[in-house]
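Form 7-S
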Amino acid sequence: MRRVRYAGGTFVTGDREAGALMRYAAALANVDRAAGLRVPGLDDEGRVDDYELLVGPASQLLVEPADHLGELPDPTELLAEIERRIDGLQWRPPAESDLLDLDLDL
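Output:
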């Protein structure tokens, strides 16, 4: 488990979720963009809640080890969504089918 400190607040989430959040923040910073993300986590009493974050180039996240407070929902969908978003941010050369067929007679 990891405690995420963000914008003066904290919540606890799983190791994989925290790692994905950090990768997403770095990917957004690399393309100078920001995006909202909802992450399930545990409050100080171990209750599950959703935490909405605005992650971007100016985000200051601290992730640190945390004591196990309770059970989190299955992270599979969240992790897939974060990876999909990260993949969408990465620059790729256009595929040949994406290029316009320009007839330039110079």
